[in-house]
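Please review this pair:
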Amino acid sequence: MTRLATAATRNPVLAAALALFTAAVVAAALTGWSWYGAAHDGDAAFARTRDTVLASGEQAVQNLNTLDHDDVDRGLDVWESSTTGDLHTQLVQGRADFARQVRQAGTVSTAKVLSGAVTELDTRTGRAAVMVALRITVTAPGGKPAVKESRLLGELTRTPAGWKLSALGQAPLGDSAASTGTTADTPPATPQPTAGH
């Protein structure tokens, strides 16, 4: 037993001071650890949200550039489930006319994500923006597939069902920070979903 501990057992005041000192050291250590953990938990949570936003944005943009004239209704259901806000409203309101145009054109459009990035993320307001590069292949009846690469800007809004596209537009060349439009960008051979609306 150390001299301090021995002295503490003989002197109640010293014993109380020693106990208070030990409690203060433990409390300081726990506070520091708690602060460190909270700070890093916040960073980790933000990173997880950013990854979720990117995955949701890439999938939604790919969805809105994929449509088969033989399965238009299912494809448009996917479009609607991928969107919210004004974009969703436009798709719902123009659905019947757009489906008729796609069936008449007989096109099949498929998209593949080449790359993507989150350009804005505000977890407090539930708003985000992504840029997605796609390779879009459009096949018309009796024609050879037409392939083009497109760079799109999408705005996402957090909903009870997850992050969904609320706007989508073509990214201007050389300006990755430009604001997005409010209509879905589709391949040239596919009628625009909001045409005439």
